[in-house]
Amino acid sequence: MTCIVGIVHEGRVHIAGDSAGSSDYQITIRRDPKVFRNGNVIFGCTTSYRMIQLLRYAFVPPPYSPGDTLEKYLVTAFINAVRECFKEVGLPQRR
Fold it and tell me: Which pTM does this prediction carry?
């Protein structure tokens, strides 16, 4: 289980996450972060450590067009770029 939290305090955004990797009844404390910055984007991730590594080191966030809403950017340009990155490096698709 992963815990990632975010809070805005005095005009600043604070985001943090735990460092545990788990499967079934085993928990491992990991050194690689689940919360990180890539360009102008802050990520808080869970599930696959390979996916997290790719988002941190291989993914290039597309530029944000000021004319778009944040929602439109995320559901179109951003997610399409994430999917393309995963496809290029061979991350298996989950079904």
Answer: 0.85
